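Narrative summary of target 7.
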Amino acid sequence: MTQRMFFALWPDDALRDAIQARVPDGHGGRPVARDNLHLTLAFIGAADTAYAECLSRAASTVDIEPFAFELTGLGCFRKPGVLWLGDVVPRDPLVRLAQDLNTALIPCGFQPEAREYRPHVTVARKLKAPVARAPIHPIRWSVDGFCLVVSKPGPDGVRYEVVQRYPV
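Modeled conformation, tokenized:
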């Protein structure tokens, strides 16, 4: 049996509220469910049990120091029609965490994405029209670990479930 998986930063309730408060009306897209909001560090895709166990063990070797960043902007990826919050400041600690995690997963057979890492929180999908990039009132995100998440399909759409936490 395989499951779709990814590694992410998982916001608490206060952070989820702050993220939702920055999403403008009138984008015409389908909002991401509040409990599904996250910031992806590494997208795995389909993983069988053995692969998932290897990934989980490998992720536990990543050394992470607590850090914080701010989400400072709103924008969209036109091609998939995704509205996001991002423009992370400072970028370096978050990019370093994603790179360290991706590197740790390689011995399991993981292939990191070749494109540049663009940290963001997807807040809506299937936009009817592009949304202009704009600054937002910054949202501070304190990082004290990351999670392994599985995607669970259901009658009301996909639900994300944390299956492993990797604290500092």
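The two ends are 31 Å apart (CA to CA).
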